[in-house]
Amino acid sequence: MHRRLALASAAALCGTLVLTACGSSGGASGDTAAAAGPVKLTFWSWTPNMDKVAALWNASHPDVQVSVQKQASGDDLVTKTITAAKAGNAPDLVQVEYQALPTLVSNDVLADIAKRSGTAKDRFAAGVWQQVTLGSDAVYAIPEDTAPLAFYYRTDLFAQYGLKVPTTWAEFADTARQLKQKDASKTLTTFSANDPGLFAGLAQQAGAAWWTASGDAWKVAVDDTATRKVADFWGGLVAEGAVDNQPMYTPAWSKALNDGSQLAWVSAVWAPGVFTSSAPDTKGKWAIAPLPQWTASEAVTGSWGGSSTGVTTGAEKAGHADAATQFATWLNTDPQAVAALVKEAGIYPAATAAQTGGALANAPEFFANQPDFYTRAAEIAKNTAPAAWGPNVNVAYSTFKDAFGKAAQNKSGFPAALTAVQQATVADLKKNGFTTQG
């Protein structure tokens, strides 16, 4: 998305995400003149122990001191940041989920740091870096963590039932059917609609681009060919009973993982933490494998989550953008900083050099049976497909939960559910004054 479109759309976005965030714009906080003493930066982040990581920077950068202020994540932080920016009280730095970047850019909250970010681009996979550029020449943040999708499976039960790890989605479907034939009480996995991020990642892998900007207009393609292929695939498996239709993160779902009723899970690199709490009795029985492919010769994955560190326009107006960009770059590329993020916050770093060795030299304790866990994860991550986000992801996600939740329970209606998401997303953009294309 180009800066021209972002600024032209700022007023129109009021009401898309937060009705309370769009008051009159106040002046920037701070003074553009250099103040006596060190530059003092504020950083809003939800990452655990981020203050401990910032302390490393503060100890070696007496002229630039960073104060971390712990925040809630998700839409709450987006709302708070927009409100603060309108009042002239935005922090200098803010942690931003990738899908929230267009919303903050459209509200003129994030500065373009392309001329300040140096060679940071070279430290990240192309698909990850594209998310912080929004497909333009601008750079709105530095990637912090990423969450490539992978296939997790019970090694013992796959061996017991004579199943092969699927390398394509066609093989995945066959494996699901074979398991049902051998033991009707078991299921390979479930289709869940209570977290749209998973479906979005699967659509990315298939080549989807849900939002694109051209000139002053947005094109929404939630129902593009790639996404329809994904919806039809999962809808077909649910309809025939080859996979379950129950939502994730419920007691019943955890029980299925723990007692072996569910043998696999398509999830992100952070899955070991979920297994630890949801399926404690299965420690050492799971393995990570690449996500099944639509074409056998490919090795592409999507992502489910991840965040970045953005520099605000408030910092730019206050004359702090250079210092803030230096900190954001250090935080996400410096070996000591990234190692601290892994150790203190348990993140999977976006910087490719940090995804193996060092703090990730050893497999997660839950996967002690797979010593090369992070080596495998890094191989998967390097082929992460780019995501295309827009200014009203929250509307698309909310509609997805409702429409696909009903389709999953009814075991039918997946195409109609996808159409509903498309129509709701376009209608919301038009309602809030955006120009739409196609």
**Could you say which overall geometry the principal axes of the C-alpha atoms support?**
globular
Q: What class would the helix/strand composition place it in?
A: alpha/beta
Radius of gyration, CA atoms, in whole angstroms: 22 Å
What is the H-and-E element order? Answer: HEHEHEHHEHHHEEHHEHEEHHHHHHE
Main beta sheet strand tally, sense and closure: 7 strands, mixed
Q: Give start-end ranges of low-pLDDT stretches.
A: 1-34
Q: State the total count of DSSP E strands.
A: 10
Helix content: 40-55%
How many helices? The count is: 17
Distance between the termini: 17 Å
**Average of the residue pLDDT scores:** 91
Strand content: 5-15%
Please give a structural write-up.
- The chain is an alpha/beta fold.
- 42% of the residues lie in helices and 14% in strands.
- It has helices at residues 3-13, 50-60, 75-86, 101-106, 126-133, 155-160, 169-182, 196-206, 225-240, 251-259, 271-278, 313-317, 321-333, 335-345, 373-381, 393-410, 414-431, and strands at residues 39-45, 64-70, 93-97, 142-154, 211-214, 217-220, 264-268, 286-289, 303-311, 435-436.
- The strands form 2 sheets. Strands 1, 2, 3, 4, 7, 8 and 9 form a 7-stranded mixed beta sheet that branches.
- Helix 2 links the parallel strand 1 (39-45) and strand 2.
- Helix 8 crosses helix 9, helix 13 (321-333) crosses helix 14 (335-345) and helix 16 packs antiparallel against helix 17.
- The longest helix is centred in the last third of the chain and has 18 residues, at 393-410.
- The model is unreliable at 1-34 (pLDDT under 50).
